[in-house]
Amino acid sequence: MQFGIFTVGDVTTDPTTGRTPTEHERIKATVAIAKKAEDVGLDVFATGEHHNPPFIASAPTTTLAYIGAQTERIILSTATTLITTTDPVLIAENYAKLQHLTDGRVDLMMGRGNTGPVYPWFGKDIRDGIALAVENYALLHRLWREDVVDWQGRLRTPLQGFTSTPRPLDGVPPFVWHGSIRSPEIAEQAAYYGDGFFHNNIFWPMSHTKQMVGLYRRRFEHYGHGPADTAIVGLGGQVFMRPNSQDAIREFRPYFDVAPVYGHGPSLEEFMDQTPLTVGSPQQVIDRYAAMRDHVGHYQRQLFLMDHAGLPLDIVLEQIEILGTEVVPVLRREMAIGRPEHIPDAPTHASLVAAAGGARDATVHADDDVTGRTAENVAATENAEAAR
Amino acid sequence: MTTSRRIAVVSAGLRQPSSTRLLADRIADAAGRQFAARDVDVDLRVVELREHAHDLTNHLLSGFPSASLEQAIKAVTTADGLIAVSPIFTASYSGLFKTFFDVVDADALEGMSVLLGATGGTERHSLALEHAMRPLFTYLHAIVVPTAVYAATSDWGAEDAGDGDGAPTGLTRRIERGAREFAELVTGREPRQTADPFAVPTPFEQLLAEN
Protein backbone atom coordinates (compact mmCIF):
# COMPACT_ATOMS: atom_id res chain seq x y z
CA MET A 1 0.00 0.00 0.00
CA GLN A 2 1.31 3.41 -0.99
CA PHE A 3 0.84 6.57 1.06
CA GLY A 4 1.57 10.04 -0.19
CA ILE A 5 0.46 13.60 -0.59
CA PHE A 6 -1.10 15.56 -3.42
CA THR A 7 -1.27 19.28 -3.97
CA VAL A 8 -3.34 21.57 -6.19
CA GLY A 9 -0.82 24.39 -5.85
CA ASP A 10 -3.29 27.05 -4.73
CA VAL A 11 -1.99 30.48 -3.78
CA THR A 12 -4.35 31.32 -0.93
CA THR A 13 -4.25 34.04 1.70
CA ASP A 14 -3.54 32.80 5.21
CA PRO A 15 -6.78 33.91 6.92
CA THR A 16 -5.09 34.10 10.33
CA THR A 17 -2.47 36.61 9.20
CA GLY A 18 -3.95 38.08 6.02
CA ARG A 19 -0.70 37.30 4.20
CA THR A 20 -0.75 35.86 0.68
CA PRO A 21 2.39 34.06 -0.51
CA THR A 22 3.94 35.06 -3.81
CA GLU A 23 3.95 32.63 -6.72
CA HIS A 24 7.68 32.22 -6.23
CA GLU A 25 7.30 31.33 -2.55
CA ARG A 26 4.54 28.85 -3.33
CA ILE A 27 6.52 27.19 -6.14
CA LYS A 28 9.55 26.79 -3.87
CA ALA A 29 7.27 25.61 -1.04
CA THR A 30 5.97 22.85 -3.31
CA VAL A 31 9.52 21.57 -3.75
CA ALA A 32 10.17 21.73 0.00
CA ILE A 33 6.92 19.84 0.65
CA ALA A 34 7.83 17.09 -1.82
CA LYS A 35 11.31 16.68 -0.33
CA LYS A 36 9.82 16.55 3.16
CA ALA A 37 7.42 13.83 2.00
CA GLU A 38 10.38 11.70 0.91
CA ASP A 39 12.29 12.45 4.12
CA VAL A 40 9.48 11.20 6.36
CA GLY A 41 9.06 8.01 4.37
CA LEU A 42 6.01 8.72 2.21
CA ASP A 43 5.79 6.89 -1.12
CA VAL A 44 4.18 9.37 -3.50
CA PHE A 45 4.18 13.08 -4.27
CA ALA A 46 1.59 14.23 -6.80
CA THR A 47 0.88 17.67 -8.18
CA GLY A 48 -2.23 18.95 -9.91
CA GLU A 49 -2.35 20.93 -13.13
CA HIS A 50 -4.03 24.30 -13.40
CA HIS A 51 -3.54 27.07 -15.90
CA ASN A 52 -5.07 30.02 -14.10
CA PRO A 53 -4.64 32.12 -10.97
CA PRO A 54 -4.68 31.47 -8.03
CA PHE A 55 -2.68 28.34 -8.90
CA ILE A 56 1.01 27.73 -9.58
CA ALA A 57 0.42 24.23 -10.90
CA SER A 58 1.11 24.78 -14.59
CA ALA A 59 4.10 23.02 -16.19
CA PRO A 60 3.87 19.94 -13.94
CA THR A 61 6.71 18.02 -15.61
CA THR A 62 9.10 20.91 -14.93
CA THR A 63 8.18 20.78 -11.26
CA LEU A 64 8.36 17.01 -11.09
CA ALA A 65 11.71 16.83 -12.89
CA TYR A 66 13.19 19.41 -10.53
CA ILE A 67 11.90 17.48 -7.52
CA GLY A 68 13.06 14.23 -9.10
CA ALA A 69 16.61 15.60 -9.29
CA GLN A 70 16.58 16.30 -5.55
CA THR A 71 14.98 13.09 -4.33
CA GLU A 72 15.96 9.43 -4.47
CA ARG A 73 13.00 7.25 -3.82
CA ILE A 74 9.63 8.97 -3.87
CA ILE A 75 7.25 8.28 -6.79
CA LEU A 76 6.35 11.43 -8.71
CA SER A 77 2.82 11.61 -9.98
CA THR A 78 0.13 13.99 -11.15
CA ALA A 79 -3.26 14.77 -9.70
CA THR A 80 -4.36 15.32 -12.32
CA THR A 81 -2.91 15.58 -15.84
CA LEU A 82 -5.44 17.28 -18.09
CA ILE A 83 -5.95 14.61 -20.74
CA THR A 84 -8.68 16.75 -22.30
CA THR A 85 -6.78 19.94 -23.06
CA THR A 86 -3.20 18.67 -23.26
CA ASP A 87 -2.05 17.23 -26.55
CA PRO A 88 -1.52 13.49 -26.02
CA VAL A 89 1.66 13.69 -28.11
CA LEU A 90 3.11 16.16 -25.60
CA ILE A 91 2.01 14.01 -22.66
CA ALA A 92 3.64 10.97 -24.27
CA GLU A 93 6.91 12.85 -24.78
CA ASN A 94 7.03 14.76 -21.50
CA TYR A 95 6.31 11.87 -19.18
CA ALA A 96 8.50 9.38 -21.05
CA LYS A 97 11.32 11.93 -20.69
CA LEU A 98 10.52 12.29 -17.00
CA GLN A 99 10.61 8.51 -16.67
CA HIS A 100 14.16 8.41 -18.08
CA LEU A 101 15.37 11.31 -15.94
CA THR A 102 13.99 9.85 -12.70
CA ASP A 103 14.77 6.21 -13.47
CA GLY A 104 11.14 5.24 -13.64
CA ARG A 105 9.79 7.03 -10.57
CA VAL A 106 6.80 8.33 -12.51
CA ASP A 107 3.14 7.58 -12.86
CA LEU A 108 0.21 9.75 -13.95
CA MET A 109 -3.34 10.39 -12.99
CA MET A 110 -5.58 11.47 -15.85
CA GLY A 111 -8.34 14.00 -15.25
CA ARG A 112 -10.67 16.13 -17.32
CA GLY A 113 -10.32 19.34 -15.33
CA ASN A 114 -13.34 21.11 -14.00
CA THR A 115 -12.78 24.68 -15.14
CA GLY A 116 -14.86 25.44 -18.22
CA PRO A 117 -12.71 28.34 -19.50
CA VAL A 118 -9.54 26.19 -19.59
CA TYR A 119 -10.80 24.33 -22.68
CA PRO A 120 -10.78 27.28 -25.10
CA TRP A 121 -7.37 28.38 -23.76
CA PHE A 122 -6.08 25.24 -25.41
CA GLY A 123 -8.37 25.35 -28.42
CA LYS A 124 -10.87 22.83 -27.06
CA ASP A 125 -14.54 22.83 -26.11
CA ILE A 126 -15.78 21.66 -22.72
CA ARG A 127 -18.78 20.04 -24.38
CA ASP A 128 -16.29 17.53 -25.81
CA GLY A 129 -14.93 16.83 -22.29
CA ILE A 130 -15.66 13.10 -22.13
CA ALA A 131 -14.95 12.58 -25.85
CA LEU A 132 -11.56 14.31 -25.47
CA ALA A 133 -10.69 12.17 -22.45
CA VAL A 134 -11.60 9.02 -24.39
CA GLU A 135 -9.94 9.87 -27.71
CA ASN A 136 -6.80 11.52 -26.33
CA TYR A 137 -6.10 8.68 -23.95
CA ALA A 138 -6.65 6.07 -26.66
CA LEU A 139 -3.95 7.85 -28.68
CA LEU A 140 -1.60 8.29 -25.71
CA HIS A 141 -1.96 4.58 -24.92
CA ARG A 142 -0.81 3.70 -28.43
CA LEU A 143 2.00 6.28 -28.56
CA TRP A 144 3.68 4.59 -25.60
CA ARG A 145 3.16 1.06 -26.89
CA GLU A 146 3.70 1.29 -30.64
CA ASP A 147 6.93 2.64 -32.12
CA VAL A 148 5.27 3.96 -35.25
CA VAL A 149 1.72 5.24 -35.05
CA ASP A 150 -0.74 5.97 -37.85
CA TRP A 151 -3.73 7.57 -36.27
CA GLN A 152 -6.86 9.46 -37.16
CA GLY A 153 -9.45 10.79 -34.72
CA ARG A 154 -12.12 13.43 -34.51
CA LEU A 155 -10.59 16.00 -32.17
CA ARG A 156 -6.96 16.24 -33.27
CA THR A 157 -5.02 16.34 -36.53
CA PRO A 158 -4.11 12.87 -37.86
CA LEU A 159 -0.67 11.31 -37.39
CA GLN A 160 1.16 9.39 -40.07
CA GLY A 161 4.21 7.29 -39.28
CA PHE A 162 4.73 9.18 -36.04
CA THR A 163 7.20 8.03 -33.39
CA SER A 164 6.93 9.63 -29.96
CA THR A 165 10.35 10.10 -28.40
CA PRO A 166 11.92 9.17 -26.11
CA ARG A 167 10.43 5.71 -26.04
CA PRO A 168 9.26 4.67 -22.53
CA LEU A 169 12.07 3.67 -20.16
CA ASP A 170 12.89 -0.06 -20.42
CA GLY A 171 10.05 -0.38 -22.94
CA VAL A 172 7.47 0.02 -20.17
CA PRO A 173 5.01 2.95 -20.18
CA PRO A 174 4.31 4.77 -16.91
CA PHE A 175 1.39 3.36 -14.94
CA VAL A 176 -1.77 5.42 -15.35
CA TRP A 177 -4.55 6.15 -12.91
CA HIS A 178 -7.81 7.73 -14.01
CA GLY A 179 -9.22 10.26 -11.61
CA SER A 180 -12.88 11.10 -11.60
CA ILE A 181 -15.28 12.33 -9.01
CA ARG A 182 -18.60 11.99 -10.74
CA SER A 183 -18.36 10.46 -14.20
CA PRO A 184 -19.13 6.74 -14.52
CA GLU A 185 -17.56 6.94 -18.01
CA ILE A 186 -14.11 7.50 -16.49
CA ALA A 187 -14.44 4.57 -14.08
CA GLU A 188 -15.44 2.59 -17.16
CA GLN A 189 -12.38 3.84 -19.05
CA ALA A 190 -10.01 2.86 -16.22
CA ALA A 191 -11.62 -0.58 -16.09
CA TYR A 192 -11.42 -1.06 -19.86
CA TYR A 193 -7.67 -0.51 -19.94
CA GLY A 194 -6.98 -2.27 -16.65
CA ASP A 195 -5.50 1.00 -15.36
CA GLY A 196 -5.85 2.34 -11.84
CA PHE A 197 -8.85 4.31 -10.64
CA PHE A 198 -8.41 7.16 -8.20
CA HIS A 199 -11.49 8.58 -6.54
CA ASN A 200 -10.67 12.00 -5.21
CA ASN A 201 -13.25 11.82 -2.50
CA ILE A 202 -11.98 14.68 -0.34
CA PHE A 203 -15.07 16.76 -0.98
CA TRP A 204 -17.51 13.87 -1.23
CA PRO A 205 -19.44 11.51 1.00
CA MET A 206 -18.25 7.91 1.27
CA SER A 207 -21.56 6.60 -0.12
CA HIS A 208 -20.67 8.17 -3.47
CA THR A 209 -17.06 6.96 -3.40
CA LYS A 210 -18.30 3.46 -2.74
CA GLN A 211 -20.57 3.62 -5.76
CA MET A 212 -17.82 4.82 -8.13
CA VAL A 213 -15.20 2.36 -6.88
CA GLY A 214 -17.77 -0.46 -6.96
CA LEU A 215 -18.52 0.30 -10.61
CA TYR A 216 -14.81 0.37 -11.50
CA ARG A 217 -14.13 -2.94 -9.75
CA ARG A 218 -17.08 -4.71 -11.45
CA ARG A 219 -16.08 -3.45 -14.87
CA PHE A 220 -12.35 -4.24 -14.31
CA GLU A 221 -13.39 -7.86 -13.86
CA HIS A 222 -15.82 -7.64 -16.80
CA TYR A 223 -12.98 -6.58 -19.11
CA GLY A 224 -10.90 -9.58 -18.04
CA HIS A 225 -8.15 -7.91 -16.03
CA GLY A 226 -8.71 -10.13 -13.00
CA PRO A 227 -11.10 -10.43 -10.07
CA ALA A 228 -12.79 -7.20 -8.93
CA ASP A 229 -10.88 -7.17 -5.65
CA THR A 230 -7.56 -7.00 -7.54
CA ALA A 231 -8.43 -3.76 -9.34
CA ILE A 232 -6.08 -0.87 -8.52
CA VAL A 233 -7.84 1.73 -6.36
CA GLY A 234 -6.65 5.02 -4.90
CA LEU A 235 -8.40 7.45 -2.57
CA GLY A 236 -7.91 11.03 -1.52
CA GLY A 237 -7.78 12.27 2.04
CA GLN A 238 -7.50 15.44 4.02
CA VAL A 239 -6.28 15.79 7.60
CA PHE A 240 -5.03 18.26 10.17
CA MET A 241 -3.51 16.95 13.38
CA ARG A 242 -2.46 18.02 16.86
CA PRO A 243 -1.82 15.74 19.84
CA ASN A 244 -4.99 17.14 21.41
CA SER A 245 -7.95 17.02 19.00
CA GLN A 246 -9.50 20.22 20.37
CA ASP A 247 -6.30 22.10 19.54
CA ALA A 248 -6.40 20.73 16.00
CA ILE A 249 -9.97 21.93 15.54
CA ARG A 250 -9.27 25.36 17.03
CA GLU A 251 -6.20 25.85 14.83
CA PHE A 252 -7.71 24.53 11.58
CA ARG A 253 -11.18 26.10 11.82
CA PRO A 254 -10.20 29.58 10.55
CA TYR A 255 -8.63 27.95 7.47
CA PHE A 256 -11.63 25.70 6.96
CA ASP A 257 -14.22 28.44 7.33
CA VAL A 258 -12.96 30.50 4.41
CA ALA A 259 -11.21 27.78 2.38
CA PRO A 260 -11.65 27.63 -1.38
CA VAL A 261 -14.20 25.00 -2.48
CA TYR A 262 -16.07 24.45 0.78
CA GLY A 263 -15.58 27.67 2.77
CA HIS A 264 -18.69 29.57 3.89
CA GLY A 265 -20.66 26.36 3.41
CA PRO A 266 -21.06 23.44 5.79
CA SER A 267 -19.61 23.70 9.27
CA LEU A 268 -16.29 21.97 10.00
CA GLU A 269 -18.18 19.38 12.04
CA GLU A 270 -20.68 18.69 9.24
CA PHE A 271 -17.91 18.44 6.67
CA MET A 272 -15.90 16.04 8.83
CA ASP A 273 -19.01 13.93 9.20
CA GLN A 274 -19.80 13.91 5.47
CA THR A 275 -16.31 13.69 3.91
CA PRO A 276 -12.93 12.09 4.76
CA LEU A 277 -11.69 15.38 6.28
CA THR A 278 -10.36 14.50 9.71
CA VAL A 279 -9.22 17.23 12.07
CA GLY A 280 -8.06 15.79 15.36
CA SER A 281 -5.40 13.64 16.95
CA PRO A 282 -3.12 11.34 14.92
CA GLN A 283 -5.02 8.41 16.45
CA GLN A 284 -8.32 9.76 15.11
CA VAL A 285 -6.76 10.01 11.65
CA ILE A 286 -5.48 6.44 11.94
CA ASP A 287 -8.90 5.15 12.99
CA ARG A 288 -10.73 6.99 10.22
CA TYR A 289 -8.40 5.96 7.39
CA ALA A 290 -7.87 2.39 8.56
CA ALA A 291 -11.64 2.03 8.11
CA MET A 292 -11.63 3.24 4.48
CA ARG A 293 -11.10 -0.29 3.19
CA ASP A 294 -14.37 -1.29 4.88
CA HIS A 295 -16.09 0.97 2.33
CA VAL A 296 -14.12 0.39 -0.87
CA GLY A 297 -12.26 -2.88 -0.26
CA HIS A 298 -8.49 -3.34 0.04
CA TYR A 299 -6.91 -0.56 -1.96
CA GLN A 300 -3.50 0.48 -3.19
CA ARG A 301 -2.90 4.18 -2.78
CA GLN A 302 -3.91 6.79 -0.23
CA LEU A 303 -3.02 10.42 -0.95
CA PHE A 304 -3.53 13.29 1.51
CA LEU A 305 -4.11 16.96 0.73
CA MET A 306 -1.98 18.81 3.28
CA ASP A 307 -0.99 22.21 1.89
CA HIS A 308 -4.08 24.11 0.81
CA ALA A 309 -6.33 26.91 2.10
CA GLY A 310 -3.46 29.20 2.99
CA LEU A 311 -1.74 27.01 5.59
CA PRO A 312 1.81 28.40 5.95
CA LEU A 313 4.75 26.24 4.88
CA ASP A 314 6.12 25.61 8.38
CA ILE A 315 2.78 24.19 9.55
CA VAL A 316 2.45 22.10 6.38
CA LEU A 317 5.92 20.60 6.89
CA GLU A 318 5.08 19.89 10.52
CA GLN A 319 1.84 18.17 9.44
CA ILE A 320 3.70 16.03 6.87
CA GLU A 321 6.14 15.08 9.62
CA ILE A 322 3.28 13.90 11.86
CA LEU A 323 1.71 12.07 8.91
CA GLY A 324 4.93 10.32 7.97
CA THR A 325 6.19 9.44 11.44
CA GLU A 326 3.09 8.89 13.57
CA VAL A 327 0.23 8.03 11.23
CA VAL A 328 1.45 6.21 8.11
CA PRO A 329 3.63 3.60 9.90
CA VAL A 330 0.60 2.56 11.94
CA LEU A 331 -1.69 2.66 8.90
CA ARG A 332 0.74 0.42 6.99
CA ARG A 333 0.44 -2.19 9.73
CA GLU A 334 -3.33 -1.78 10.02
CA MET A 335 -3.92 -2.04 6.27
CA ALA A 336 -1.84 -5.24 6.13
CA ILE A 337 -4.13 -6.93 8.66
CA GLY A 338 -6.49 -9.30 6.90
CA ARG A 339 -5.25 -8.27 3.47
CA PRO A 340 -5.44 -11.40 1.30
CA GLU A 341 -2.26 -12.54 -0.48
CA HIS A 342 -3.73 -12.07 -3.93
CA ILE A 343 -4.41 -8.33 -3.51
CA PRO A 344 -1.72 -6.61 -5.59
CA ASP A 345 0.27 -3.54 -4.64
CA ALA A 346 0.04 -0.48 -6.87
CA PRO A 347 2.20 -1.13 -9.93
CA THR A 348 5.63 0.54 -9.92
CA HIS A 349 8.19 0.80 -12.69
CA ALA A 350 10.07 -2.19 -11.24
CA SER A 351 6.95 -4.35 -11.01
CA LEU A 352 5.87 -3.41 -14.54
CA VAL A 353 9.31 -4.22 -15.91
CA ALA A 354 9.25 -7.58 -14.13
CA ALA A 355 5.77 -8.27 -15.49
CA ALA A 356 7.01 -7.44 -19.00
CA GLY A 357 9.73 -10.10 -18.65
CA GLY A 358 12.56 -7.69 -17.95
CA ALA A 359 13.88 -4.37 -19.14
CA ARG A 360 14.57 -3.78 -22.80
CA ASP A 361 15.94 -0.75 -24.53
CA ALA A 362 13.13 0.64 -26.62
CA THR A 363 15.12 3.23 -28.54
CA VAL A 364 13.87 3.79 -32.05
CA HIS A 365 16.84 4.60 -34.26
CA ALA A 366 16.02 6.85 -37.14
CA ASP A 367 17.02 6.12 -40.67
CA ASP A 368 19.82 8.66 -40.67
CA ASP A 369 21.94 9.68 -43.60
CA VAL A 370 25.24 9.22 -41.71
CA THR A 371 25.02 5.55 -40.77
CA GLY A 372 22.22 4.55 -43.09
CA ARG A 373 20.71 2.54 -40.24
CA THR A 374 16.95 2.25 -39.89
CA ALA A 375 14.76 1.01 -37.10
CA GLU A 376 14.19 -2.12 -39.16
CA ASN A 377 17.97 -2.80 -39.53
CA VAL A 378 18.45 -2.41 -35.79
CA ALA A 379 15.57 -4.72 -34.99
CA ALA A 380 16.85 -7.26 -37.52
CA THR A 381 20.37 -7.13 -36.05
CA GLU A 382 19.00 -7.55 -32.55
CA ASN A 383 16.85 -10.46 -33.60
CA ALA A 384 19.83 -12.11 -35.26
CA GLU A 385 21.89 -11.62 -32.10
CA ALA A 386 19.11 -12.98 -29.94
CA ALA A 387 18.81 -16.02 -32.19
CA ARG A 388 22.51 -16.90 -31.76
CA MET B 1 -55.96 -5.19 -9.32
CA THR B 2 -55.04 -1.87 -7.79
CA THR B 3 -52.11 0.00 -9.15
CA SER B 4 -49.97 2.47 -7.27
CA ARG B 5 -48.13 5.68 -8.01
CA ARG B 6 -45.44 7.60 -6.12
CA ILE B 7 -46.38 11.24 -5.58
CA ALA B 8 -43.95 13.84 -4.23
CA VAL B 9 -45.02 17.17 -2.78
CA VAL B 10 -42.47 19.98 -2.63
CA SER B 11 -43.46 22.96 -0.51
CA ALA B 12 -41.25 26.03 -0.31
CA GLY B 13 -43.15 27.90 2.41
CA LEU B 14 -41.01 29.66 4.98
CA ARG B 15 -43.25 30.29 7.98
CA GLN B 16 -44.78 27.77 10.30
CA PRO B 17 -47.67 27.35 9.82
CA SER B 18 -47.30 28.26 6.19
CA SER B 19 -50.06 29.07 3.72
CA THR B 20 -47.88 27.51 0.99
CA ARG B 21 -47.81 24.23 2.89
CA LEU B 22 -51.55 24.57 3.53
CA LEU B 23 -52.15 24.90 -0.20
CA ALA B 24 -49.81 21.97 -0.93
CA ASP B 25 -51.69 19.81 1.56
CA ARG B 26 -55.08 20.75 0.14
CA ILE B 27 -53.91 19.94 -3.39
CA ALA B 28 -52.39 16.64 -2.20
CA ASP B 29 -55.66 15.73 -0.42
CA ALA B 30 -57.69 16.52 -3.51
CA ALA B 31 -55.29 14.53 -5.67
CA GLY B 32 -55.48 11.65 -3.18
CA ARG B 33 -59.29 11.55 -3.61
CA GLN B 34 -58.91 11.60 -7.38
CA PHE B 35 -56.44 8.71 -7.27
CA ALA B 36 -58.69 6.76 -4.89
CA ALA B 37 -61.59 7.21 -7.30
CA ARG B 38 -59.39 5.63 -9.98
CA ASP B 39 -58.39 2.74 -7.71
CA VAL B 40 -54.80 3.92 -7.53
CA ASP B 41 -52.83 3.65 -4.29
CA VAL B 42 -50.64 6.64 -3.54
CA ASP B 43 -47.19 6.55 -1.96
CA LEU B 44 -47.00 10.19 -0.81
CA ARG B 45 -43.68 11.87 0.04
CA VAL B 46 -43.72 15.44 1.32
CA VAL B 47 -40.57 17.55 1.10
CA GLU B 48 -40.68 20.71 3.21
CA LEU B 49 -37.83 22.77 1.77
CA ARG B 50 -37.49 24.94 4.89
CA GLU B 51 -35.96 21.93 6.66
CA HIS B 52 -33.29 21.70 3.97
CA ALA B 53 -32.50 25.41 3.59
CA HIS B 54 -29.00 25.25 5.09
CA ASP B 55 -28.19 21.99 3.32
CA LEU B 56 -29.28 23.49 -0.01
CA THR B 57 -26.84 26.39 0.39
CA ASN B 58 -24.14 23.95 1.47
CA HIS B 59 -24.86 21.81 -1.57
CA LEU B 60 -24.44 24.83 -3.87
CA LEU B 61 -21.07 25.57 -2.26
CA SER B 62 -19.66 22.10 -1.63
CA GLY B 63 -21.17 20.28 -4.62
CA PHE B 64 -22.79 17.38 -2.77
CA PRO B 65 -25.96 16.93 -0.73
CA SER B 66 -26.13 16.04 2.95
CA ALA B 67 -27.68 12.65 3.66
CA SER B 68 -31.10 14.10 4.48
CA LEU B 69 -31.13 16.39 1.44
CA GLU B 70 -30.09 13.48 -0.75
CA GLN B 71 -33.07 11.56 0.57
CA ALA B 72 -35.38 14.47 -0.20
CA ILE B 73 -34.01 14.79 -3.74
CA LYS B 74 -34.44 11.07 -4.27
CA ALA B 75 -38.01 11.21 -2.98
CA VAL B 76 -38.76 13.69 -5.76
CA THR B 77 -36.73 12.26 -8.62
CA THR B 78 -38.03 8.72 -8.12
CA ALA B 79 -41.68 9.85 -8.03
CA ASP B 80 -44.25 9.38 -10.80
CA GLY B 81 -45.84 12.76 -10.15
CA LEU B 82 -44.87 15.98 -8.45
CA ILE B 83 -46.97 18.66 -6.78
CA ALA B 84 -44.72 21.72 -6.53
CA VAL B 85 -45.84 24.76 -4.53
CA SER B 86 -43.91 27.97 -3.91
CA PRO B 87 -44.66 31.37 -2.48
CA ILE B 88 -44.32 34.12 -5.10
CA PHE B 89 -41.52 36.49 -4.08
CA THR B 90 -40.58 39.49 -6.21
CA ALA B 91 -42.47 38.37 -9.29
CA SER B 92 -41.28 34.75 -9.27
CA TYR B 93 -40.90 31.54 -7.25
CA SER B 94 -38.82 31.90 -4.10
CA GLY B 95 -35.05 31.48 -4.16
CA LEU B 96 -35.33 28.42 -1.92
CA PHE B 97 -37.69 26.76 -4.39
CA LYS B 98 -35.33 27.49 -7.28
CA THR B 99 -32.28 26.33 -5.33
CA PHE B 100 -33.87 22.93 -4.79
CA PHE B 101 -34.51 22.46 -8.50
CA ASP B 102 -31.03 23.83 -9.26
CA VAL B 103 -29.36 20.98 -7.37
CA VAL B 104 -31.56 18.28 -8.88
CA ASP B 105 -29.93 16.79 -12.01
CA ALA B 106 -31.22 18.54 -15.12
CA ASP B 107 -32.59 15.31 -16.61
CA ALA B 108 -33.98 13.88 -13.36
CA LEU B 109 -37.50 15.24 -13.91
CA GLU B 110 -37.82 14.16 -17.53
CA GLY B 111 -41.33 12.88 -18.17
CA MET B 112 -42.48 13.79 -14.65
CA SER B 113 -46.16 14.72 -14.36
CA VAL B 114 -46.36 18.02 -12.48
CA LEU B 115 -49.07 20.10 -10.87
CA LEU B 116 -48.03 23.62 -9.93
CA GLY B 117 -49.27 25.78 -7.08
CA ALA B 118 -48.28 29.15 -5.67
CA THR B 119 -49.29 31.53 -2.91
CA GLY B 120 -49.03 35.29 -2.71
CA GLY B 121 -50.27 38.37 -0.96
CA THR B 122 -52.56 39.50 -3.75
CA GLU B 123 -54.07 37.86 -6.83
CA ARG B 124 -52.08 40.28 -9.01
CA HIS B 125 -49.11 37.88 -8.86
CA SER B 126 -51.00 34.83 -10.08
CA LEU B 127 -49.48 34.88 -13.56
CA ALA B 128 -46.07 34.20 -12.04
CA LEU B 129 -47.21 30.59 -12.21
CA GLU B 130 -47.38 30.89 -15.97
CA HIS B 131 -44.43 33.11 -16.78
CA ALA B 132 -41.97 31.78 -14.19
CA MET B 133 -42.87 28.40 -12.74
CA ARG B 134 -44.22 26.68 -15.83
CA PRO B 135 -41.16 27.49 -18.01
CA LEU B 136 -38.86 26.13 -15.29
CA PHE B 137 -40.55 22.73 -15.50
CA THR B 138 -40.80 22.88 -19.27
CA TYR B 139 -37.02 23.31 -19.30
CA LEU B 140 -36.70 20.22 -17.11
CA HIS B 141 -38.80 18.28 -19.66
CA ALA B 142 -41.55 17.69 -17.14
CA ILE B 143 -45.19 17.52 -18.24
CA VAL B 144 -47.19 20.23 -16.47
CA VAL B 145 -50.99 20.00 -16.32
CA PRO B 146 -52.89 22.99 -17.76
CA THR B 147 -54.38 24.15 -14.47
CA ALA B 148 -51.99 25.76 -11.99
CA VAL B 149 -53.41 26.70 -8.60
CA TYR B 150 -52.82 30.15 -7.17
CA ALA B 151 -53.98 31.12 -3.69
CA ALA B 152 -53.91 34.78 -2.65
CA THR B 153 -54.44 35.88 0.93
CA SER B 154 -57.99 36.83 0.02
CA ASP B 155 -58.77 33.31 -1.26
CA TRP B 156 -58.37 31.80 2.20
CA GLY B 157 -61.15 33.99 3.60
CA ALA B 158 -63.47 33.82 0.62
CA GLU B 159 -66.78 32.07 1.18
CA ASP B 160 -66.30 29.70 -1.71
CA ALA B 161 -62.98 28.37 -0.40
CA GLY B 162 -64.52 25.98 2.10
CA ASP B 163 -67.01 23.16 2.19
CA GLY B 164 -70.05 25.18 1.23
CA ASP B 165 -73.18 23.63 -0.17
CA GLY B 166 -73.28 22.79 -3.84
CA ALA B 167 -70.44 22.87 -6.34
CA PRO B 168 -67.34 24.66 -5.11
CA THR B 169 -66.15 27.80 -6.77
CA GLY B 170 -62.96 29.84 -6.47
CA LEU B 171 -59.89 28.24 -4.90
CA THR B 172 -61.57 24.92 -4.12
CA ARG B 173 -62.73 24.61 -7.69
CA ARG B 174 -59.24 25.31 -9.00
CA ILE B 175 -57.71 22.78 -6.62
CA GLU B 176 -60.23 20.13 -7.69
CA ARG B 177 -59.68 20.81 -11.37
CA GLY B 178 -55.89 20.74 -11.07
CA ALA B 179 -56.01 17.56 -8.99
CA ARG B 180 -58.27 15.88 -11.53
CA GLU B 181 -56.00 16.78 -14.45
CA PHE B 182 -52.96 15.64 -12.46
CA ALA B 183 -54.48 12.29 -11.44
CA GLU B 184 -55.65 11.65 -15.01
CA LEU B 185 -52.17 12.35 -16.36
CA VAL B 186 -50.29 10.31 -13.74
CA THR B 187 -52.68 7.36 -13.95
CA GLY B 188 -52.63 7.35 -17.74
CA ARG B 189 -48.86 7.13 -17.88
CA GLU B 190 -46.65 4.18 -16.97
CA PRO B 191 -44.74 4.51 -13.68
CA ARG B 192 -41.48 6.35 -14.35
CA GLN B 193 -38.25 4.37 -14.62
CA THR B 194 -35.14 5.92 -13.16
CA ALA B 195 -31.85 4.71 -14.58
CA ASP B 196 -28.88 4.19 -12.28
CA PRO B 197 -25.74 5.19 -14.25
CA PHE B 198 -23.61 3.26 -11.77
CA ALA B 199 -25.50 0.03 -12.33
CA VAL B 200 -25.38 0.01 -16.14
CA PRO B 201 -22.55 2.14 -17.52
CA THR B 202 -22.16 2.94 -21.19
CA PRO B 203 -19.77 0.21 -22.42
CA PHE B 204 -16.36 1.62 -23.26
CA GLU B 205 -16.39 0.23 -26.80
CA GLN B 206 -19.43 2.42 -27.38
CA LEU B 207 -17.67 5.48 -25.93
CA LEU B 208 -14.73 4.81 -28.26
CA ALA B 209 -17.01 4.29 -31.23
CA GLU B 210 -18.83 7.56 -30.60
CA ASN B 211 -15.62 9.41 -31.35
TrEMBL record, chain A:
Which Gene Ontology CC terms are recorded?
cytosol
Q: Where is the Luciferase-like domain?
A: 1-294
- Record's superkingdom? Bacteria
Keyword Transcription attributed: no
Where is coiled-coil annotated? none
Residues that span the membrane, as ranges: none
Q: Which UniProt keywords apply?
A: Monooxygenase, Oxidoreductase
GO MF annotations, alphabetized:
monooxygenase activity; oxidoreductase activity, acting on paired donors, with incorporation or reduction of molecular oxygen
Keyword Oxidoreductase part of the UniProt annotation: yes
Tell me the PANTHER family matching this sequence.
BLR5498 PROTEIN, LUCIFERASE-LIKE MONOOXYGENASE
* Name of the protein described by the UniProt record: LLM class flavin-dependent oxidoreductase
Lineage, highest ranks first: Bacteria, Bacillati, Actinomycetota, Actinomycetes, Jiangellales
TrEMBL record, chain B:
The record ties this protein, via NCBIfam families, to: LLM_duo_CE1759
Q: Where is this region: Disordered?
A: 187-211
Task: Give this protein's Gene Ontology molecular function annotations.
Answer: oxidoreductase activity
List the keywords (alphabetical).
Flavoprotein, FMN, Oxidoreductase
- InterPro entries according to UniProt: CE1759_FMN_reduct (IPR023932), Flavoprotein-like_sf (IPR029039), FMN_Rdtase-like_dom (IPR005025), NAD(P)H-dep_FMN_reductase (IPR051814)
Q: What's the source species' lineage?
A: Bacteria, Bacillati, Actinomycetota, Actinomycetes, Jiangellales
Which species is the source of this protein? Answer: Jiangella aurantiaca
Q: Which parts of the sequence belong to the NADPH-dependent FMN reductase-like domain? A: 6-155
* Name this protein carries in UniProt: NADPH-dependent FMN reductase
